[in-house]
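Amino Acid Chain and Its Fold in Token Form
===========================================
What this section holds: a protein sequence and its matching fold, both as plain text.
Structure line: whole-number tokens from a learned vocabulary of local backbone shapes, matched to residues.
Purpose: to set a sequence beside its fold so the mapping can be learned.
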Amino acid sequence: MKALLEKLNALVLLALFGVTAAAIVFRTVLGWSASWSEELGQYAFIFLVFIGAAAAVADDGHISITSFVDRLGPAGRRVCKLLQCVLPLPFLVVFAWGAWLNVKANWGTELSTVPWMNVGYMYLCVTLSSIAMTVWLVLRALRLLRAPAATEGVPR
């Protein structure tokens, strides 16, 4: 699943690059502003951020400062890792629910400059990435709880 997210993110990044390059060409070469490029660029960036966040959660790839945790013993590291999995869950559940409500409310709303782009697509991306992050964090927490307590390494 993570590999699929990374490939999808690569396509979104390529689209973002294409939209930005087209905006530059339209403005500098043709002398007119492509109003659609700004909105599509913003949506592509939102997709890039949320798909990338879900992919980073999948392999515990978010930035973390471990200077305190590294000084703890195996049990302390395990507790910190478990807290790292559990503390974001309420936020992600509320975030996913709010995004889903926005999907339902905005599904029929089109962007003014890009009629084929539905506002609901953005909220659907946010909803799905929040659900994916929630699932991966719950699975990681369950792995931590099931792992033998005496192990030196803390499972990812």
Remarks:
- The chain has five helices and no strands.
- The CA atoms of residues 21 and 79 lie 47 Å apart.
- The chain has a mean pLDDT of 88.
